[in-house]
Amino acid sequence: xxxxxxxxxxxxxxxxxxETSNDAFMPLYFDKSRYxxxxxxxxxxxxxxxxxxxxxxxxxxxxGRLLVCRKVGKSLRQSCFALLRAQIAxxxxxxxxxxxxxxxxxxxxxxxxxxxxxxxxxxxxxxxHALSGIWAEEATELTERDFLQLDLRLRGDVPGYxxxxxxxxxxxxAHWLKGRFFDNPRPDTALHRSTYRDNxxxxxxxxxxxxxxxxxxxxxxxxxxxxxWGFPGGGVFxxxxxxxxxxxxxxSLKTGFFEGGHWQDxxxxxxxxxxxxxxxxxxxxxxxxxxxGSDFFTAQVIDAESGRQVACLRRRFDEDVYARQVYELGRxxxxxxxxxxxNFSTYPVKELARxxxxxxxxxxxxxxxxxxxxxxxxxxxxxxxxxxxxxxxxAALREDMSLVSDELTLCEMLTFRRNxxxxxxxxxxxxxxxxxALAMAHYIRPQALRARGEPxxxxxxxxxxxxxxxxxxxxxxxxxxxSKWGG
Length: 487
Known about the structure:
- The chain is α/β, with parallel strands linked by helices.
- It has two domains: 25-225, P-loop containing nucleotide triphosphate hydrolases (Rossmann fold), CATH 3.40.50; 248-454, Nucleotidyltransferase, domain 5.
- The chain contains 17 helices and 19 strands.
- It has helices at 3-19, 46-60, 74-91, 122-126, 144-151, 176-182, 204-211, 218-225, 239-247, 319-332, 347-354, 385-399, 407-414, 433-443, 445-451, 464-472, 475-485; strands at 35-40, 65-70, 97-100, 105-108, 113-118, 133-137, 163-168, 189-194, 254-259, 262-265, 271-273, 283-288, 297-303, 309-315, 337-340, 362-366, 373-377, 416-418, 424-426.
- An eight-stranded mixed beta sheet has the order 3-4-5-2-6-7-1-8. Strands 10-9-11-14-13-12-15 form a seven-stranded mixed beta sheet. It has a two-stranded antiparallel ribbon with strand order 16-17.
- Strand 16 and strand 17 (373-377) form a beta hairpin.
- 38% of the residues are buried.
């Protein structure tokens, strides 16, 4: 084929592509980013585009191998496979293509093949490797572990560039997709948002139906009509107030972490500072450790006087690293009163004590054997204390939602709901680590304010061993211990 006829053929191809595609998606046909995250409302055309791009690649890349998947394999035949077959009939009627129906499979003669697999079929998935492209439809059904397992298969000596396309409705702002791709945009990722308004081929009646949801169901309208991240209703916190606060948020003053006792600026840092410590200011630090149903260690610092959030920490840690970061963060805020949860592990509390942290929250319990009051470091969340903590936080934010400065904390509030037993907790697939840490910070405020400018009460800040030694000592020895330990 001479150069002129090849050019004419390419122009005809491009003209047909433009005539049969939505303008919003045209640049994405030529995008070769490693990841392509396409969020959008219902009827936006994102799945139609993804299917068309998969076909274009399979048709043009000899030896290419592309995988189309969903969480549940049974849903593939009626959704993605049916869509691809319809597009082949409409746009590639002259192509030599083999479509196998019994076990879905598509192969272009002189081109590549398209495989299909549900992530519930782990045995079949194990046999799939060396892929040049993956399309995951309804990607919000996938766990982050599913994504990582698929991403490992996007490699090998196969033609073409490697690209992972994810298409989904943004059903929850707490979803891992938002945290992984949208909260901290990556240079290897193409992000795209679309709505039915970007789809010139859609039936106008369908758009009217979506718009009719406005005012009747703001969640569905926001997600499926406007293509915005969703915040399901029925939450513990006032959703309208949280939305308003999110719209008015200012960026953090700085983001980073502590290393060797010094602050290090870093865009990838796990601590966000929203207000610098004031001279003489009193601060509280609440910490939620990674335990049952939780993947993150978190800490929230608030001004004890106003209740305003001034810093936030969130990351997966080893316990010793978490304790060191809390130690430094607390010191940064004038030796903030630190109340760390001890339900699942007492290691961070003990490590803070070992490092000589000046102020830890002290809870008082009665020894069931001696009847004496015992003082212990840390916050214990129980069936009695948890409702009190959350009620205090809800009451404070009902008065002033501007006390919260962190977007991820607000996102957790919007997915913090009551279960069938009316117990407040994170919605399925969401987290409540930041909410609980903030509740703990508010819960310990009275102790921080009570101790302001006053000498410590007898025994305040003592370890359990110190308590036992004190009670076992003689009167003279007790006087010595008081002079040595304070109180």
